[in-house]
Amino acid sequence: ERYINDKLSGKLSPAATLFTNLQIRETQKQKKGRRFTLDEKILSLSLYKKSPKSYKLLSSLFTLPCRRSLTTLLHQVKIEPGISPVLMQVLKEKVNKLKANEKFCTLMFDEVNLSTELHYNAASGKIDGFENDGCTTTQEFADHALVFMVKGITK
Question: InterPro entries from the entry (predicted)?
Answer without folding.
Answer: TNP-like_RNaseH_N (IPR048365)
